[in-house]
Structure formats: structure tokens, C-alpha cells
What we know:
The structure holds two protein chains of two kinds.
Chain A: E1 5-13, H1 29-52, E2 59-63, H2 65-71, H3 74-97, H4 103-126, H5 131-140, E3 144-147, H6 156-159, H7 163-181, E4 187-188, H8 200-205, E5 210-213, H9 215-219, E6 233-234, E7 240-243, H10 246-253, H11 272-275, H12 278-281, H13 313-339, E8 347-353, H14 364-378, E9 382-384, H15 387-393, H16 423-441, H17 447-463, H18 467-474, H19 478-501, H20 506-515
Parallel strand pairs in A: 1-2, 1-8, 1-9, 2-3, 4-5, 5-7
Antiparallel strand pairs in A: 6-7
Helix pairs in contact in A: 1-3, 1-4, 1-5, 1-14, 3-4, 13-14, 16-17, 16-19, 17-19, 17-20, 18-19
Chain B: E1 19-26, E2 29-35, H1 38-47, E3 55-62, E4 67-72, E5 79-83, E6 90-99, E7 102-108, E8 112-113, E9 138-142, E10 145-150, H2 152-160
Antiparallel strand pairs in B: 1-2, 2-5, 3-4, 3-6, 5-10, 6-7, 6-8, 9-10
Amino acid sequence: MAFKGYLNLVLHAHLPYVRHPESEEYIEERWLFEAISETYIPLLIYFKKLVEENVQFRLTMNISPPLITMLKDDLLQKRYLRYLVERIWLARKEMYRTKNTNKDVNDLAQFYFYQFKDFYRVYKREYNCDLVNAFKYFQDIGVLEIIACPATHGFLPLLNVTPNAVRAQISNGVQVYKEAFGRQPNGMWLSECAYIPEVESALNEFGIKYIILETHGITNAVPTPVYGTLSPIISPNGVAAFGRDLESSKQVWSSICGYPGDPNYREFYKDIGYESEWEYIKPFVSKSGHRVDTGIKYHKITGKTNDKEYYKPDNAKAVAEMQADHFISSRIEQINSAATNMVIPPVVTCPYDAELYGHWWFEGPYWLYVLFKKIHYNQDTFKLITPSEYLSTYPNIQECKPAISTWGAHGYNEVWINPGNDYIYRHLHHAAERMTYLANILKEPTETERRALNQCARELLLAQSSDWPFIITMNTMVEYAHKRVKDHIGRFNALADMIDKKEINEDYLENIEFKDKIFPNIDYSIFSTN
Amino acid sequence: MHLLKSEYYDLPIKYDQTLIRLLVQSPTRMYAYWEVSDDTMKYFSNNFHNYSDCVPALKITNITKNYSYVIPVDPFANNYYIDVEDTGCDYKIELGRTKDNNFLNIYTSNNITMPIFSRTNDNANGFADSDEVLFGNYLCIADKKKIKVYTNKESRKYFQNQTHTDFENITSSDIPKPIGG
Lengths: 530, 181
């Protein structure tokens, strides 16, 4: 088969900023630790393996600024190492506990023990606890293209009432990227793929060449793009947009027929953290005394039954390999068919949440590894490509105005604004206007005022995170999300009042700087309009 | 540094300002929130009519198709969800009071562009299918345009009382006559 087109795989890695130096009782820090163990380290292990095996692969990744900051944070690195050591001890304990009881379970306990030990080696010895630098290495050698993301994953269409809020999100996102990766980003992952035309001026201002959109952001563009999502389009302002391919998305994402639901894959919801005797598991779960996931899970999905069978890693791997074949044959068929009607090679864009791979879909990183190998060795119809490579190879693309869109349920803003979370926006807008006012009037602040203004900017950006309204809508850690909104708006207002009165309480400021230690090089003047 | 272990903040109930803001929820539903300061109320009473004697109202304008209509709002409400039929159009909302069928503007919102309808499959990003968000079905007729108006209070009441289906139907005679458009 002759070469016909491209596959553009995009992983979006993001977690809200959940660093809590004031207490170890926040179970939300575990979101980070679980993602490191289950997604980021396995991905890095397989990237390295692919490079060592001389497998040509290309992948686009976004690592959001809160995630970059947390992965580089000393305190969280120390806490993660402790978390990992606890996993190793727990797996070891499990090996002894199950030694003479059940061979299947004992094999799995050993599997986890050696896996956690390997993760420790990779994290501590190989990457010196700095996973951002590890991902940077793969970008520097040309297999990864890392793209930027708004500062705190703010949902831009609902912040745009104060245009400076959008500009600050994009500007700080680019700044964090440059500090972490030492170069200008070409692309930006708009939080929740949420696009409105008004974001383009800031994208242009900060050098962003392309974005990724939900399917209808392309298919509803004006004029209608002749190649649908199989080719990028370029807006009249010069921002290129790649649209998500629906067919390949469904194969992976769909909760009904998607790959991660195979009965042989590991069951996410059965974890010994919930199933073991309390006294036994207590030292390994939350400091606040709540049962939580430990990462040790012994069962496979099995089917729609509560009677789950034991997980067999080798069987799961065999399924991942078959599914990789299926994905490739589907793409060959799709690309062959599309290419007959196109004058340029089609590009199938497949964006996914990175945490799907490994955290939710335990076998996901292995599937990706096998997929890259099979694409490299077993077919010639399509190649992997990044958006930058595609745009530099095929610069003549159709000019269209992308359509307003998001990748949330129903395609617009309902997830982020509904009766459960809409109260947030009046406070976000008020704080953004007040921040703009302060930035406009305080051109030559004292050192203390400057620190307070920068901290106000941090608090505002943290309050703007799309995660809080999302969590409220999904009805998961709702109280935590409400608290975070209250805390950041409360801290912002307290500091802004102090600045107004010229009575800054340095002890308070120092406390808040210590707690919300994101964006060390932030400059509040980004909010200024003059 | 003495570490503040526990902090507690409440969000301000109001900011003592006068404004109305308009946001997009979906191609057919927008969200407005507003606040009227005490000073504005006094100014209104001193220069027009007694503020409390007037009916609070929103004047919705489809800028693209150049028509407007006015809907009453509950005196205690500070936010509404408003359904519109014409997608892909620019809209704005004026916050005001009506007296003797006259609409008096207090503040005008930002403009928004409603998206056009999607052809993408729902649930495309794999989020768990959340139940369709149902709100109270507060049907009213204004300026011969069929619109639906939802309030937070009503929708929450709906969720608390699942057997409740429809809110009171309001007929066109209950609605102040729209001005302009």
C-alpha cells in the first residue's frame, strides 16, 4: 500500500492545582500521585523503550501549567516519593498476605511490587523527580511536540466578559511553557477545547500558531471546510485549527464500545483500599482517615456483574495488541477512502485526555506503545505526524471561520455553567475587573504592594480554573470545589482590600504566597489595559 | 511565619454595583445575572418612579435580526436562564423596570453571540452521560415570541421535588407590552 495520509495523536495532560502545604489531609493531592504512577511514568517508560528500539513515532502532548508547576514542586515531589514507598511496602505486605492463599492474587501482588519499585527507580534515579524535564527531553529529540495551555485551564468563553482575563490566561500559559521547555510553543490546547473567535487576538499576540477543536468547531465553520476534520483550516486571523476525528475518538472514548471497556482489562473500581480490613489498610490510605484507592487492584472488568474475576496482565496485553491492530486497520480504511477525494494527504486528529491512558485505562500506555510499533513496522498507508510538521509540510489550507464549540457534553457550555455552578461567574468577573483596576492604577508599587498584586493575580487565575465548575457538575468532590472557589476569591478580596487601604498584612500575604505558590514569575501588569 | 492552618471565606452576597452580564450556555439558552446598587435604586426613585412600585424586567434584544421583547422577572431574582429560538445571532439584555407599560433601562449587558447548532454527536468526549439538565418549564408568551425562562430557584425546586413538572403558565396578558424592536 502506498502512503496516503497521517495520524495526529494528541494527549492532554491536566490536573487542577491541588498542592496543600498546610495539611496532609487533603486526599486531592493523590490525584497527582495516582496520575504520576499510572499515566506519566508509564508513558515515559514506553517513550524511552520506543526510542531505544528505533521506532519512529510522533505524539503531541499538552502539559497544563498547574500540572507543570506541581510536577516541579519540591514538596509534592517529596510527598510523591513517600506515597510510592508506601505503595512498595503495601505491595510487599500483600505478597506475604497472599503467599499461601491464592496464586492469582499473589502473582498480581508481585506484579505491583516490582512495578512500584521500577517506578521509584525511574522517578528518583532516572529523572531526578523532575518529570517535566523528562517530557522535555523527548520533545528535544523530536518525538514529542508539547503544546501550551491557558494558565489554570480557565474556561475562556465564560471569562471573556473581561477580555483581559482571557489574555492573562493565555499569556501566563505561554510564559510557564517557555520556562519549562525553553522554547516558544507553536500550539495551544484551549481548555475543554472551548473556542470563541475572541480568543484569537491573544493567541496571535503570544505567538500561538494552531489550536485543537472539537469536531463541530470545524464542521460548522464558515464556509464549510471541504475536507471536514481531515484537514486543518486557518482562521482569517491566521490561527490554524485541527478538528477532532469522530470515528477514531469513539473507538477509544466510547463508554459503550470503546477499547477500555474490554472484559479482560483491569477493573478500576475494585481496589484493596476499599476492600481490605480497616486496621490492615489504615497506614496506607488517607491521613484524614478516609478509604482511598491504593493502586492495587486484583480484578478484571469481567462484564456487567459484581462477581469479578481475577485480572491476568498477559491476557489484557493480548487484547491491547488486538485492539491496536483494529485501530490501525480502521485508520487505513478511513485514510484510503478519504485520500481518493483529497488533493492533500488527510490527517486524522485524535485528541484524548492523557490520564485516560493508565489511570482510567490501565493498559492504555501499553496500547499506545504497541500501536506505535505496529504503525512503524506493519503498514505504509499512514504516518504519525504532529500539527507543526503537518502545517510546515502543507501550508496551503482552507481559510474558514471556526465555529463556537467545546468538547463538553452537548458540545457547548452546559457542563461549566448550570444551576449548580453558575454562582461562580459573578465573582470571577468582579475579581477580574478589580484586578484590572488595580493593575491600571498601581504602576509603581512598593515591593510589598507588588507582591500582593502578584498574589492577587495568582488567586484570580486559580479561581478561574475550569475544574471547579466541572467537578460540581460531575458531582464528585463537590465540597472541595466549592471551597476552592471560596478560598481563592476570599484571598483575592482580602488582599485587594489591603492594597486599597494601603494596609498590607505581610504575615497574611506570606501565608497565602506559601499556600498558593503557583507561577513564581507572574507579573500582575498583564491585567493592565493601559 | 505563623502558618494559617484554617481560613474561612464566604463569598460576598453583593458588590454594591449595578450591572447585568450575559453568558452563553448553549445555542438556545443564555444566562444573565445582575445586581442593582442601593444608590441606583435611590437615583431611580428620585428621577423616575418609586423603585419598588415598578416591575423588574429584562429587555432581550436580538441584535442580528433587530427585534426586542420584554419579560418580567421576580423582584427577588438576580439571575435567569433564558431560552431563545434564533441561534447564531448576537444578543444583549437590558436590565430595567416597567411602569405603565414603559420599560426604563437601568443597565445594558455585554453582547454575546449564540452558537449555531452542532452536528457533533453528544457525549463526544466520553464524559459519563449526565442526565439531561431539566429546569422548571416556565412558559410565557411575549411579543408573539415563544420563550422559556428558567430561574435557579425554580430549577432547584424542580430537582428537590421530582414529581413537579411544570410551573405556572403565564399568558401574554400578564406580560408588560414590549417597547421597541
